[in-house]
Specification:
Length: 97
């Protein structure tokens, strides 16, 4: 995953793109983004373009861009509906001593 900025402005005033590449299949997903794109916006693009179509990747390679913080991953797991855990507590007939 990487960004390319400094491109000519499109009709929606976007001047950059975010790039997602599957290293195995070489499939590329591109999305137009604003120069001020946040980690939350990037996470939503990732969920909508990659996660919903291909599932969670086993590896995730990026540079040290500040957009790839814990906030990015929190948004991926929240927006991607990956936080659905069900906790089951079993009742026992005999209490422990």
């Amino acid at each position: 995953m990487d960004f390319v900025f400094g491109l000519p402005r499109d009709s929606r005033r976007k001047t950059g793109i975010v790039v997602f590449v599957d290293r195995f299949s070489k499939m590329v997903h591109l999305a137009a983004v604003a120069a001020e794109v946040t980690s939350v916006q990037t996470a939503r693009v990732f969920v909508d373009m990659v996660l919903k179509n291909h599932g969670m990747p086993s590896d995730f390679v990026s540079d040290r861009d500040p957009r790839f913080t814990a906030r990015f991953w929190q948004e991926v797991f929240t927006h991607g509906s990956l936080c659905r855990l069900r906790i089951i507590r079993r009742r026992t007939d005999k209490p422990s001593a």
